[in-house]
## 1
Amino acid sequence: MSEEKKKKGLFARLREGLSKTRGNMTEKVDVMVRENRKIDEDFYEELEDILLMSDCGMKATEEIMGELRERVRADRLKDAAEAREALKEIMVRQMDIPRPPLKWPMVMLVVGVNGVGKTTTIGKLALRFQSIGRKVMLCAGDTFRAAAAEQLTVWAERARVPIVKHAEGADPAAVVFDAIQSAKAQGADLLIVDTAGRLHNKKNLMDELSKRRRVIDREYPEADIRCILVLDATTGQNGLNQARAFKEVAEINGIILTKLDGTAKGGIALAIRQELAVPVWYVGVGEGIDDLQPFDAKDFINALF
Ligand code: GDP
């Protein structure tokens, strides 16, 4: 398949995945455009409601509305159609914190509560990088649940990448240690480390994550180490609370937002971006392998409108 065609296919998937949010958010803006609405206080109020109802969150909404009012004044915009274009540009700018370039070898420490799609996401990442010729290795760092390692093993087999795991109940820092030795010995480009998804209490979580982080820093100083938080878009404000909690205990370098296809409130992507000031690395818009896509602010907003 040509690159052009593949990109088109991916964009179509993204667009399809965002269809619920489009129905709830941008199509309501389109209605105002069709009605040829003038830009007045009623228009602003309605638009603000649309953003809030799509879970863009107070902060992002206020910022968007503030910028829009300024643009309307400065560029003398008159009707909803012009406002819609300005809105798109403002949203792209808000979302656009580019992901830093990937450097090899890299360790991705993947965190997030159970059920957000962490295992699936790790599997898809393994497939993605393996298919472009990177040497990938997985580490079953959630030693609290035997099922977690089993599930990850299925993905490792599917992606044909090695996996390092210990028995249930083992010290998670020890399995990370072993995985790093293997990754170094085999010259892996990317080591993806799963972590336990329990957000029990902050102190434990902090201890667990920092212990692991210390092992990686100490044993693998040549690697680029990134902590990636996986969030489930369908959990709305709850997801935002998880993000806050994780941010308090660890340095989060990137976000993967899953299940955007399952929500009409995809504005949560803007809220998360605004709240965390951390780049979104990937978005999940379905269960298929092509449904985990590198995040691009322009494509995302274009797919939404
Ligand atoms: P974990 O407990 O965080 O490891 O979650 P899993 O990886 O087991 O995923 C939980 C469920 O979410 C599975 O049924 C996945 O197929 C599903 N899932 C993951 N990502 C997406 C997504 O982007 N869209 C949809 N619709 N489902 C997803």
## 2
Amino acid sequence: MNDDAVRAQWNRVRGRLRDEFGEAAFKSWLNPLTLADVHNGQVRICVPTRFLRDWVVTHYGDRIRALWSKENGTINGVDIVVLPTTGPRPGVTANEPVANKSPAPAALVAPCEPAAASEEIGAPLDPRYRFDNFVVGKPNEFAYAAARRVAESDTVSFNPLFLYGGVGLGKTHLMHAVAWHIRERNPRRSVIYLSAEKFMYRFVRALRFQDTMAFKEQFRSVDVLMIDDVQFIGGKDSTQEEFFHTFNSLVDQGRQIIISADKSPSDLQGMEERLRSRLGCGLVADIHATSYELRLGIIGAKAEQMGVDVPRKVAEFLAHKITSNVRELEGALNRVVAHAQLVGRDITLESTQEVLHDLLRANDRRITIEEIQKRVAEHFNIRLADMHSARRARQVARPRQVAMYLAKQLTSRSLPEIGRKFGGRDHTTVMHAVKKVEELRGTDSTFDEDIELLRRMLES
Ligand code: ADP
Ligand code: MG
């Protein structure tokens, strides 16, 4: 087979990999791969380190094989082998057909500059993420208190501090706040903040440049190490291994570690048991979903920071409607403020609804039928199972109708879909329920208030 053809195939495979896995993953893991040769239907690809090989084989091996056989029907296997790029070019042997001909495209020659020794290993801190602009409420008070404690004490209080919670609830904000606080109090203490992804990337790069000693040294001299979004390490065995060692050696030396994740240590998927238990053996603090009061407080604080006047009604409306997380809430407020400033008018409820109509619809859709069933069952004090059961007694049938009605009002589900979620009922049953509840709301004001209350509770 012709070398240029093989090379072109390899370039297409690379292009595909880049498209499928994204630029960041490509750069970290796939760019270092070089094609050595193709022999008897067997492709040989070189990677500079064993770590990288294991990684690529586990995470991308199947895809690489599939893409190759799509490109070239004669290929029946792909070998990924370790060959440091610092030595002679890989695969340049007497009978090898590919690598050593005509100037190779850039893709085949991975540039190999050593890592700059002075390079900062951490990520920069966001100057907006401070303790004094973190709004504290019931859902985050524990995490906040724990973070403050760590920031204020000179000795290690609990190791690690493990913060977890859903996306956009302030984990990164708290970690940066700790880092700022420590740096200001004692500039000599070295605090390093980085994402778990960056940690992996750094580590792999150090391996590639055979520079792992320096890598470890850098972490060894750290007083406080913060690793954000550690769930990304899940399933990645060799990084876990390295992480585990770095972690242990820092703990042994009495250094403070702060970790964040989207789940508790015991729920982290693909984590090795010993790492999981190690992560959970300090203080585990969770940040709960925001409450209405906290959202209101955050809107007030942000409006004040921006120096704009947000009417109470608008703030309440936003706090009711944008319930997903703080990031979205902030985004919504920014949009409303920017719009008012652009058109030179005051912020009103009407303008807010107009500016945010797409976002509001998306948020409405997030209420699930399961949530509605749960809330309604609680409210009427019946068993959740009765939402699905065939019982027709009034005390369960009415709440069930209410739940169907709310499902119709608050979600974008169709009548048949709703019927299915209520023990496989027919769509006409749902239709009947909706009619019945509407009728009752018109005639019974207590009932009407009840439903309104439920609706608001579900939307908050
Ligand atoms: P996470 O890391 O948990 O995904 P972030 O820390 O990035 O969330 O927070 C998302 C955004 O919401 C940030 O702009 C942050 O400043 C803001 N934020 C989150 N919680 C609060 C809070 N309690 N008070 C003020 N701002 C907050
Ligand atoms: Mg974050």
## 3
Amino acid sequence: MSVQVKEKKITVSTLLKKKAEKEKITMLTAYDCSTARYFDEAGIDTILVGDSLGMVILGYESTHNVSMEEMKIFTSAVCRGAKRAFVVADMPFLSYQTTVEDAVKNAGALIQSGASAVKLEGATDLILSVIKRLTETGIPVVGHLGFTPQYLNVLGGYKVQGKSYENTLTMLEQAKKLEAAGAFAVVLEMVPEESAEFITKQLKIPTIGIGAGKYCDGQVLVCDDILGKFSEFKPKFARRYANFQEEIMQAAQKYISDVKTAAFPDAAESFHLNEEEMKKLESYK
Ligand code: KIV
């Protein structure tokens, strides 16, 4: 009799253990059930329902327009597909920057949608209080430093952060405050490799890099970037593993041509009457 060994569900402890054992953590974004299922079955550790969905799925110009309602819908879709991977949901703009109470209510709604943790950006005093309260409430939190898309207008564009010794020390200080407040991991986005390595070495919690070099404890990329599906722009750090844009267009063009030439559908793709019913139809005058 063959015994199927099911891989254990990834938890916060699994991720912390990976850092301790110097095993890299893998994270990809996903926004729908089937993609989440494929990533889960492929063996990804963590799936981020990023508010990047505003740009790559909903066609907004930035992440600022993403609402709690949208995040809840996409989070529950992803959670229906991810059985083993640890799902983190992004808290959208203004869902946690007003009061600690708002943040608890909104983070709680994402957990009730199926996520195992939430991610939020920055390290202001309010954000630190939010992280502390969420952790006390039983909601694991991932921080996000470096280029933080919700601060796009203050940062003045998609720019690498922490480019000097002083800025790196400031980011380290922020990361340590996130860790002390209870965050169990921190995303470092668009940070020089050397700065990210320095910060990674000083923290007990794992760093997950995106455009932050190879020394982070883990890596995250946006799924539409790795699949070659998002074509508005290609960040320098986003490696493409497939060309879905081309494949989707080729499939659509072939379909259009098959429909126009009546090559689709064929007999096997159609439903048919049995002979008796056919004869009746044929004798209809
Ligand atoms: O929203 C997102 O996809 C993110 C990643 C870029 C880390 O926050």
## 4
Amino acid sequence: MIINGGRPLRGEVTVSGAKNAVLALLSATVLAKDTCRIDNLPNISDVSIMLHILHQLGADVKRVGRHAVEINTRYFNSGVVPHELTKHFRASYYLLGALFGRFGHARVAMPGGCDFGVRPIDQHIRGFELLGASVSFEENAVIALKSEQPSGAPVYLDMASVGATINIMLAAVRARGVTIIENAAKEPHVVDLANFLNSMGADVRGAGTDVVKIHGVRELHGCDYATIPDQIEAGTYMAAAAATGGEVLIRNVIPKHMESITAKLLECGVTVEEFDDSILVAAPHRLQRCKIKTQPHPGFPTDMQPQFGALLATAEGTSIISEGIYDNRFRYMEQLVRMGGDIKVDGKVAVIEGVDHLKGAPVKAYDLRAGAAMVIAGLMAQGTTEIEDIEYIDRGYEDIVGKLAELGAEIRLMPVVDAIRDVKVAN
Ligand code: EPU
């Protein structure tokens, strides 16, 4: 991806459906022997891979235009889901909860995932065990769950894990009895999954608070459902508009989901105006320093940390970012330093001295959000930035080049012979 920076973004951009919600919804279609239609489907590579996995396992998958899909999993194969299919991204582990929920057994290889340090799944496993699964680890990194009949149970999570909350919900909706998840994650995609499951006939209450209560039902049915807008894609365009000193109306957002991001932009001196389902961001002056600590929702999301790392590189004064979720999510900072940033990282804390401007340079996208940070840095920088390994960015941002070009960015893809392009997709 080639970006000639220094142009303020101006105009309107429409946000797509939420990646981390839709991956859970697509997995949940396994729970009914009926057709589910999902609208506001983002056209991103993670979705294509999930649809491919479902198809490989016997689902009837019909794309309806660019932004909808109909899935029927009546003839789904409950056999092993091999590493070949799960290695691409983290959300493949939702098939454990979904298959266990439907068949009472599941064999799914360990998920892939962006490398932010160790990412255990002990909370998922313990949750499955509490619901009656006997868990074993087989050859080729396959996790096997088996039970006569999954049964509801109280599950206390040691940390408010998004993945564990979603997986336990998937496993519990058809279990016998009641499951209560304490210290549940409250992210918007947890709420979206609960709404989707309830449209399928499930009885899930309390999603969005730290206690989720699930009364198991015998059967689920098909439904029509539209995915929520992507909080992180919206936040990325808000950050890009602010970082370039532009003015952008961001459409198809839920302003309530954006509060922690909006609060930090206001602290930096950006003007943010909220409407029913859009947000106007304008940054006529140089941005000011701020302090950020990433936390579970409704705290500032770790998935917006790299984009703000880029934005703060030229904000006046000393900014501090503390990463509260992952051990190792600052690798991208060395790329900002290559572009002229003055940044010191010590473990989970980064100290950023705002410089006058960044300078274009060849850089890498280390992962999805680090890639988004490189795009923002490139848009801010004087001169040309060339970003390598952009397949990571395609995983979570629909047509980012087209959307930014519409906003006046000078951005393009350099053609690469398909055959030599690495398929390095992984979340
Ligand atoms: N954790 C454990 N044990 C567990 C589960 C989690 O120790 O059993 C730890 C993790 O190691 C991590 C923290 O708890 O330090 C949070 O992990 P969580 O389970 O909440 O994250 P996740 O489900 O693996 C999802 C998103 C990530 C996002 C995080 C945090 C999906 C597919 N992925 O991951 O999204 O960073 O929640 O909000 O929903 C992205 O979109 O770029 C992305 C990485």
